[in-house]
Amino acid sequence: MNPLNPWVALAEMLILLGMAFGLGWGIAWAQYRKPIERQQQAIRKQQAALSKLTR
Length: 55
Hints:
It is built from one helix and no strands. The chain is mainly α. The chain is rod-shaped. The chain starts with 5 loop residues before the first helix and ends with a helix.
């Protein structure tokens, strides 16, 4: 990790940062996908019930 060209170092840092972000995002998505879907379904159900009341 000791490149002679600073552009190589910058590119390497950006790639590693992007990979770390992608890995973290993927883990968070896999971990919280089910609870988020449940909340979205509950919201849809409440919106449908509310729209029936306001007709």
